[in-house]
Specification:
431 residues; alpha/beta; Rossmann fold; Immunoglobulin-like; eight-stranded mixed β-sheet; 8 helices; 21 strands; globular; disordered N terminus; Alpha/beta hydrolase; signal
């Protein structure tokens, strides 16, 4: 009898031990802090959608950051970019008590991150996983860090030897950062399991924060005042004369958090002075967002300084972190302003990789000419410019984007502010 009981006890012990081992093996990898490093003329805005997807799968939004820098290297050196990243990693590790961070780089950011990881074993030791987004190939995973390399359209001979290489040949260069497919691959690479969802999971009451920065240097828009208004989705008009929030911009341009509604439309007015206001509009954020980037410039400076202005017409800058394809027919995109299609083979060919479009009345002649792009803008990487007369007549401007692949239309309506004193930027979702 005692022998049988002993056998039964040992069998039960082995069963429990086996179950414990299975549970241990099935335990998912921890959710470490995530850092994104952008490419040329980029910012944290390229990772905004993915950050909200990660948050919808349980990541705290303050554990997801973007490491930004001046990609022209006029205001920082490569060594300073690396030193700043060292500080960011150490701060996040201390804050979250994680053992390591997960790192992503895009385009120029991949060259920088490969150099960074190869620069010292101490740096590489703090990185659990590295994702190389449509950038530099390599003969080995940088710094010996486990690497996922994501490649968009172009040669499938590109690779990082020894890494996990995936190819999304129907995706553009910036689209590889923001796509659902990239998110799913990166999430599983980081955590060892598929995400619960690839949607941006809506929230009712949200918090918004971010930076107001000069484009493309990513320096803070110091000296400006930020006013945030809830606006009508039908006209873009402010629902109240009183702002939801007012913040003085200083230092690196950080602002927030500001309480908001996930379903609402907002205007972010960057006020330089009474005669120079930059109005920025977004589609509803849907959930809390810590990577809201307000890309602006000082009055008369940068590309905006090349825009011809006047009291009788409006000027627009339209952004989307997914290329506008204007030469692909039904397989491309559509972008209509007041019913006028502005994408075509001349201004937004697929090869241009356009993500930002300036639209204004070139020559201030009250005529539209979309046959050729405006050279000063078209010559810039990822940017185009079109001659479009938009009357500043008090009626709202209608913008309708139909992304390639179909399925939905994105609509934004904004006031027709006169370009003599006011700039307008509109950002469409990329998901």
């Amino acid at each position: 009898m005692m022998f049988r009981r002993l056998i039964a006890f040992l069998a039960a012990l082995l069963l429990v031990s086996g179950m414990t081992a299975q549970v241990a093996q099935a335990k998912p990898k921890p959710q470490r802090p995530v850092i994104f490093v952008h490419g040329f003329s980029g910012s944290g805005s390229q990772f905004d959608t993915q950050a909200r997807r990660f948050a919808g799968n349980g990541y705290p939004i303050d554990h997801i950051e973007a490491h930004e820098y001046d990609s022209l290297f006029q205001h920082n050196t490569e060594a300073q970019v690396f030193a700043g990243l060292d500080q960011r990693i150490d701060r996040l590790l201390k804050k979250t008590r994680a053992d390591k961070v997960d790192l992503l780089g895009h385009s120029l950011g991949t060259r920088l991150m490969q150099t960074y990881l190869n620069s010292s074993p101490e740096r590489a030791a703090k990185i659990a996983h590295y994702v190389n987004l449509d950038g530099a190939p390599a003969a080995a995973p940088p710094g010996g860090v486990p690497t996922l390399a994501v490649w968009g359209e172009g040669s499938t001979a590109r690779q990082i030897v020894g890494a996990e290489n995936v190819y999304f040949s129907d995706q553009g260069h910036t689209q590889t950062v923001t796509s659902v497919e990239t998110f799913a691959a990166a999430y599983e690479f980081f955590t060892g399991k598929a995400p619960r969802t690839t949607r941006i999971v809506p929230q009712v009451r949200i918090e918004l924060s971010g930076r107001a920065v000069l484009f493309p240097s990513n320096l803070g828009a110091e000296g400006a005042r930020l006013e945030i208004y809830e606006v009508s989705p039908w006209t873009g008009a402010r629902k109240s004369r009183k702002p939801v929030a007012v913040r003085q911009i200083s230092g690196d341009g950080s602002w927030g958090p500001v309480k908001a509604w996930g379903h609402a439309h907002y205007e972010f007015a960057v006020v330089w002075n009474d005669q120079a206001v930059h109005h920025l509009y977004f589609q509803p954020f849907r959930r809390s967002d810590a990577l809201v980037r307000l890309l602006t410039s000082r009055p008369g400076e940068g590309l905006s300084g090349l825009v011809e202005t006047g009291p009788g017409h409006s000027s627009l800058t339209i952004n989307r972190q997914k290329e506008w394809w204007g030469d692909q027919g039904t397989a491309g995109d559509s972008l209509k302003i007041n019913g006028q299609e502005i994408l075509n083979a001349a201004s937004s060919p697929r090869t241009k990789r356009t993500i930002g479009i300036f639209a204004f009345d070139a020559g201030v002649d009250r005529t539209t000419d979309l046959a050729t792009p405006i050279p000063a803008f078209f010559s810039q990487p990822f940017i185009s410019g079109v001659d479009l007369y938009i009357p500043a007549n008090g009626r709202p401007i209608s913008l309708v984007a139909t992304p390639r692949g179909g399925g939905h239309k994105d609509v934004l309506n904004v006031p027709s502010w006169p370009s003599a004193t006011d700039r307008i930027s509109v950002s469409f979702d990329d998901d």
